[in-house]
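Practice problem 4.
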């Protein structure tokens, strides 16, 4: 299996094919995005990820400390929108790594796996929302931790610290 992954990564890297089963490919050029420049895309994604991290801290306060699903509801909605693949992937223009970016080049070499991480995150967020809506605070706390684990796992693999 590992041999297949290595061959697939080499094939993707050498052919420039960045699409996968989800149908969202890495933008190859800034003209394929809503951004004016690659630098703007990098700065936007860095800020967006910091804002998502802040939302998670606020949700921990709402759901774990205060056990208040009503207060968490608007933040959960915002988290679902901001942490979605549709929102974040356009900021990962091929080659926007290196100086000024925390991104590792492996993102584009392993695009399918990287993209799958966003869909995993979306599923974990849905689980969190379901638990919060049901006011199941233990399940919400567990789901919140799993959302954080999803973020950390991707960062360990694809971000320079």
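Answer key:
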């Amino acid at each position: 299996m590992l041999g297949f992954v290595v061959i697939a990564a080499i094939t993707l890297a050498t052919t420039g094919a960045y699409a996968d089963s989800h149908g969202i490919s890495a933008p190859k050029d800034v003209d394929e995005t809503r951004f004016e420049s690659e630098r703007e895309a990098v700065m936007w994604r860095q800020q967006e990820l910091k804002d998502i991290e802040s939302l998670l801290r606020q949700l921990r306060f709402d759901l774990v400390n205060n056990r208040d699903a009503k207060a968490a509801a608007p933040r959960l909605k915002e988290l679902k929108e901001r942490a979605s693949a549709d929102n974040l992937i356009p900021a990962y223009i091929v080659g926007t790594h290196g100086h000024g970016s925390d991104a590792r080049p492996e993102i584009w070499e392993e695009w399918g796996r990287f993209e799958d991480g966003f869909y995993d995150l979306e599923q974990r967020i849905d689980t969190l929302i379901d638990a919060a809506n049901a006011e199941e605070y233990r399940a919400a706390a567990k789901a919140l931790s799993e959302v954080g684990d999803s973020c950390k796992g991707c960062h360990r693999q694809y971000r320079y610290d």
